[in-house]
Amino acid sequence: MEKEAKTISLNFDSQVFSLIAIKKAAYRYIDSFSADISIENNEVRCLLNFTSPKSDESCARLADDFKKEVLDQDLREKLKAETEPVRNLILAHAFSKTGIVSNEPVSGD
Amino acid sequence: MSQFQAIEFYKTSKSSYRLLPFRFIPLDEERYVLTNMAGEYLVSVRDKLSDLLQHKLSNDDPTYIELRARHFLIDEDSSIAPELLSIKLRTRYDRLAEFTGLHIFVVTLRCEHSCPYCQVSRQSEDKLRYDMSPEIAIGAIDLALRSPSRNIKIEFQGGEPLLNFELIKFIVLEAKKKNQQRGKNLAFVIATNLALVSQEILKFCREHSILISTSLDGPKDLHNTNRPRPGGNSYEKTIEGIKLVREMLGRDQVSALMTTTEASLNRVKEIIDEYLAQDFNGIFLRPLSPYGFAIKTKSYRAYNAERWLDFYKEGIEYIIELNRQNINFMEYYAATVLKKMLTSEDPGYVDLMSPSGIGIGAVVYNYDGSVYASDESRMLAEMGEEKFKLGKVLENSYEQIFTSPNLLDPLEESFAYSVPMCNDCAFEPYCGADPVFHYALYKDYVGRKPESEFCSRNMETFRFLIKKMEGDRFVRQLFTKWANN
Amino acid sequence: MLKLHGNLPVLNSAAKDSYLVTVTTNANLPPVLKKNRALLMQPNQDPKGYKAILTREQGSKVFDGDSDVFLVSAEYDYLNEGDIIRLGPSSGSFNSLYRRNSPHNTILLTEQCNHYCLMCSQPPKDVDDSWLLQEAFELISLIPTDTEALGFSGGEPTLYGDRLIDLLHHTKRSLPNTAIDILSNGRAFKDLEFAKKYAAVEHPDMLIGIPIYSDDPVRHDYVVQSRGAFDDTIKGILNLKKVKQKVEIRIVIHKQTIDRLVKTCEFIARNLLFVDHIALMGLEITGFTRPNLELLWIDPYEYKDILSEAVAVLNGYGMNASVYNHQLCTVNPDVLGNYRKSISDWKNEYLEECVSCTKRGDCGGLFSSAKMYKHSKYIKAYR
Questions:
Q1: At C7, phi and psi to the nearest 5?
Q2: Does B87 contact A101 at a Cβ distance shorter than 8 Å?
Q3: How high is the mean pLDDT of chain C?
Q4: At A58, which CATH number?
Q5: Which of B50, B89, B424 sits opposite A76 (nearest CB)?
Q6: What pairing do the DSSP bridges indicate for beta strands B102-106 and B151-157?
Q7: Cβ <8 Å between C246 and A99
């Protein structure tokens, strides 16, 4: 990991992390840094450009948080893919016209 | 007598489970908040969450048992969860069919106060062309009664609506007459500063069960600084007015709203004490919105989300302590959020609805007949931006107004479930879309959520309320009561 | 505890098979009515012409003729005008099936059950006792129409399927003004068609009481000793609500259900908000409870705070909840709004300690079985 004045470079193994996960993670941090993302030799390269003046310490911290967020986003992708079929089932059932039970409380008979 | 089996007999020995759809977001350094499809949350440490997602969690683990009971996973021992989730989801969205509930009639723009934060650009008293005409009023009533909702609330706003009390009377009587054929549950509210209230006015209110909503920003000096009027006695007039309303209409027939300004930020306890002194059962600690005079006079920029959050948290802590001492006092913003967290009901609060509450939760008929998608939409128009104007009373039909692209586009584009970052967010069930806010500040319906103060303020509020409940059984019970209010 | 079942010395038997008969203290009924009454005989009364005679003393009287005559001891002094009993002239068997003065009578329909609850107060018997159902039809025809409430229980009544529904139709016709409640594990209603048949009775005041012992399906299944019970029961409740029937959820509190009691109530509030009532019940020390006492017993005084929290959850969500089968001195004041004096009159007792208690009138007392075998060690009179 190289550190230039307020720019940090991170690499992610593209076999392990999806590009979508990395982009989504980068999106969450656009108020703190903008990211230049490129792919080279099975690696996703992220150049984090910190937007407003920050100390080296807080830049390092944000970079760490970003890495954690990439992991979280990756897990979210997998979770979404895995639960897609049952989500559609639940939604279909929720909005079907069959006499579904409402969870509304009974007004005293 | 046959043998009784041990509990292990009722548990499949091999833990193999299927995940149900859920979202997660960090709560603090160690913990995450997980929310299922019905918007129910569960707090878990990161390790357990990670094990869960990798299918490594054992069905002996207490966290596993919680997750199954709370509908985050199913297994061979129980798979009834999807059906229950469907029902809960359905209940949550049932409310959509009951639109529009709140109809705001701006009967005049005239006002004798000059509050710097005023969202409405008020015109001084003698400009009668800023009053709504009876013709427009009738047209607006017709539109309001076309709503599918069984419950219609008509709220009179201004300027100062009592300056045009004659029209209020006219509207109440006309609406009730026309409603005889419709059979809606009609309710009326006047949002007034009470400076002009009189026995005669209140007699009419009593006869027609009209509720009063007024402004009380805090103790006398704070209130009067925030709300200047000729004579400098807004507070005195308000207190007098409240007493008179209670005498003539009843103790609970008047409610108060406060506006938070820079001057309020260090004084939340005093403000709450003022509400206690005036015998109110609760307070609504509102953030400042970026509209109208608030923007012009830079009151909006005077404080940001962080400072408001400190103010808010201090207020909630204080109110919790009051309740520990058996003083029943509620905070209504928290109650609104808690209703979304702890029940399947929707509180119908416009700013925290997704799809957005504009048009669906509320609609505004301005004095000049312009129809706006919400209170904030009108304020935006006063600033020159007519993005959320839906049409004009007497010129456009109900269908034209409620299917106007100025309504449907922002509804669709801002629907949180489909918006970047919101669609992943565990807090989405508690949050709202607020396209008007985002358009006001960022010139698009969605904005970029990481930069949005609406987003950061809401997320921090949700985290705060959840953390308070996790640690403290008393708070959990108190918040459950508020959520079911 | 009232002696509702027993064996009586037979002084004369005319009939062979058992039969149902209404008790009377009136020795002067018209002959046509005497023929289907059992006379609770006083000395010097002429009991001739009654179907059955229940006498306190043998004396020197010789009983002969067409009446079945039984000797009753002081234990049967509770018997009253209008009670309905079953008498067996060959064996002397006696069963009180309906008591006129009781606010609530329950009819046992079967001892068969597809559950085997750890704390079952009516342990299942795998014998064909469908004669109980047959008898119920007759019993209901005898019960007076001003009866306010009647219960059906088992075992598991829904094991009779359509015949249970027939019984409910019959009850509605015979006793149109009587509220009925049925105890069931609810699983049969996971079949929507069965739920619809149940709904088709269109009874004006019918409630079904269904136990849910935990929000954790494994624990619930364990308590009822049946795999898959939780899912089926929930499905049954959902179907009953689909067809707009009144449902009560019952939770028996003991060591196997106390840990998740609050969470179970939260589960009910989030998922079954529409149920009409929730009953939180104290443990009865009878049936299977006694062999399983180690597993089940926890002193109610020790769980009173958890009970308060559970009740607070249900109240907080605006649900109707009641606390049954607890003594006032073992619960916190904050549940008094939900506390009911509930132990059935025939098995209700007080301890010596209770004699001087100023709140005795408001307290439900103890189960007779509790007084005999196990009760809270914190029972203390209020002064």
A1: -125, 130
A2: yes
A3: 94
A4: 3.30.70
A5: B424
A6: parallel
A7: no
